[in-house]
Give the backbone structure.
Amino acid sequence: MSHHIAPTDRPLGVGILGAGPVTQAIHLPALARLRDVLEVRHIMDVDAAVASSVAARVGATSSSSMDELLGDPAVDIVAICSPHQFHADQVIAACRAGKKAVLCEKPFAMNAEEATRISAVSTETGVPIVVGAMHTFDPGWLAAEQNWGDLPETAHTIRSSIVLPPNARFEDFATEILTRPAAGRPDYSDSEVLKAALHGGIMGLAIHDLPLVRRFTPDFEHVDVLQARHVRPFGYAVSLRTPSRVIELRAVMNGTWKPEWTFEAIADDSALRIDFTPSYVQAGSAVATFTRNDGSETTSFGPFGHNGYEGEWRELAGLANGTRQAPPAQTLIDDLTFALAIAEATVESAALDHAAAADTAGVSA
Amino acid sequence: MSAHFTVHATPAAREAGAVTETVASLPATFGPMPAGHSGQADVRVVAGSSGWAAEAAGAMQAGARGIVVANPVPEDTSELAAAADAAGAVVVLDLRWAANPALVGEGSGADARGAVRSGLGSASLLDSVATAAPGTDPRQLLSDHFAALLAVAGRLDGVAILRLDTSGYTASGRLANGAPFTAQGVLTAARPAGVDIRLYTADGGVAVRVPDPDAAWPAEVRVTGPHGDLLLPTLYESAHRFAWRRLKEHLSAGTRPDDLAGFARLTDLYATLTAT
């Protein structure tokens, strides 16, 4: 299920904007497994000391300026791993700099207008863009895609469930982290804090699997929120409905050691379940399992030898050397607008519930 | 040697409760009415379709000492409970999933109820999915589902149905500590029927998987915590047989089960749900 990538005479050069934990613990270890085809040549971070230290680990140049990285002729592929609000402008700048391909961590834009602007620039410059929805590049998912037949048309129920320990547990299995963002203690009695947490949950966590959900939701433009519940300390229980689908999203990030990340699509007579490996660690691919006949017929695919993050980089290498076709820009826009619609509706629903709860408390007092 | 009790079941009850094979697995205690015997059986099996409570009360008045109700639908059991008290009869409910011995076991043995209740104080989320074949009445599935949830969680607040249709349902509410719970019903022939219950806590949780009672495949209860993952002992006994074995214990010891009191909580909850 992996994309075969032949070593070239000289590896393609990679430049990374943002040197935080995701770069350190996810991308650099993945790239280390592809050193025959990809080589990290430039690391940029607004904190020059972090940029220098992370770059030194891989023998790359460092800077604290995006322009400096984009002007570096040794960089063929740009990965954008900066805070969300910078993504759109940086993607556009990387395209205009004439790079061979761009990887943008999800979300690649914060609204539909930004997404359309990015798409136009990608079309104009011919620079392909890959959004870091890593599960769509996981060989387990790709194997499912080749074998799911008419399930995207017949599934009536879709579930995404994510149970994860704190990120630090797996970051520390993957690398030696330089710096971590300070952990806060949010006041969830404040409705604005609650809304921000739910929005962050959808756009930061659920978004990993929303492109998968959308593949099974032909009427994704008509999504209603049935419930949006915040789960402490971090997570959500969101129930959605379109005219033809039921979509259930669950996430819990607690103190457990046991990760469990599943995607399910269920029809009357067949079902798909994909068990993904946790992020950060190089623990191979997801396992996709189809069941029929009360579970008495089971077909599984995987695990394969690499995860979706490595799959992303294999895809980027293929795009940069012209052996693979860029994904349609409309797919990226549709994925983003689907996620944004869910995030906004979720926040709105939670705000109404919060207000209703406050009213009830006022009456009973 | 224990006493031997004769059993009578209507064809519908026999089918609903897998009575023949279950009674055959307790041959020293239960057996069919002898051929040509015209009296009242010691134990009557009642199918749990609408009106079962009245039928059970009638069987008691006719002299049955024990009643097994196979997969009862929610309905008022207050008169039946009073009749059982007056007659000193034993009423055991053979519930599809809630009667599984892994959920609420015997004595002080580890079970799902104990595992879940010990985690409720630090619960983040209780998420549950019940699966049944297409064509199943989603309201019956909801009843079976909530019977299992109530058996392990004991209390569910603010319960509401968010949707109920031909593909299943979604319901939600709160646990005692205010954490959310969700219950989803999914109708599909792709997977075996059963119920999954997941409780997520501050440092782990409990995962319960209960199969249908048409075979003695065991439920699975796993408790996850800093210690690792603990699989509770597997019990190769169906919900049907465990119900009958409880009946045997109570008849033999002259004690009374609390099945009807527990079922009244389900009936009350179900009434509020179906009214929404």
Q: What stands out?
A: The first helix of chain A runs from residue 21 to 32. The longest strand of chain A covers residues 157-164. The mean pLDDT of chain A is 90.
